[in-house]
UniProtKB/TrEMBL annotation:
This is 50S ribosomal protein L20. Coiled coil: none annotated. The lineage of its organism: Eukaryota, Viridiplantae, Streptophyta, Embryophyta, Tracheophyta. It comes from Tanaecium tetragonolobum. It holds the Pfam family Ribosomal_L20. Binds directly to 23S ribosomal RNA and is necessary for the in vitro assembly process of the 50S ribosomal subunit. It is not involved in the protein synthesizing functions of that subunit. InterPro entries: Ribosomal_bL20, RIBOSOMAL_L20_CS, Ribosomal_protein_bL20_C. SUPFAM superfamilies: Ribosomal protein L20 (SSF74731). GO terms for cellular component: plastid; ribonucleoprotein complex; ribosome. Keywords: Chloroplast, Plastid, Ribonucleoprotein, Ribosomal protein, RNA-binding, rRNA-binding. The keyword RNA-binding applies. It is found in: Plastid. Belongs to the bacterial ribosomal protein bL20 family. GO terms for molecular function: rRNA binding; structural constituent of ribosome.
């Protein structure tokens, strides 16, 4: 029986798919290409999550720097806590964009929140001084 070459099937199997790297064996050898594709897809998936984390850290840093620039004793964590208490649900991305676009707007928001929380603290202090019943946050 005569020898048959791989022909059609072998060529189909070895066709180089969209190569992610165009250097050395990663673009020439079939097995290495498939390994590199798997590795690069894995890295892309991992780094998408890492990018989200990094952007969140960047937004938090920008907000914290802007707040501490104006008021010394006020911090990012207090601002976010007071925002949730006041039920103003800004996400960090929007707050960071407000900070970059106009710091004055961020200062207005933080001052409103500080005034609101100051009213609550004053009510609690009055109730504590009056000596009547339990002390509750109003």
């Amino acid at each position: 029986m005569t020898r048959t070459k791989g022909g059609y099937r072998a060529r189909r199997r070895r066709t180089k798919s969209g190569s992610f790297v165009s250097r050395g064996a990663y673009s020439r050898l079939t097995r290495t290409i498939t390994e590199q594709e798997i590795r690069s897809l894995f890295s892309a998936h991992r780094d998408r999550d890492k990018q989200k984390r990094n952007f969140r850290r960047l937004w938090i840093t920008r907000i914290n720097a802007a707040i501490r620039e104006r008021v010394v004793s006020y911090s990012y964590s207090k601002l976010i806590h007071d925002l949730y208490k006041r039920q103003l649900l800004f996400n960090r991305k929007i707050l960071a964009q407000i900070t970059i676009a106009s710091r004055n707007c961020l200062y207005i928001i933080s001052n409103e929140i500080v005034e609101y929380t100051g009213i609550i603290v004053n009510r609690v202090a009055r109730r504590m001084n009056s000596g009547k019943g339990e002390w509750k946050l109003l």
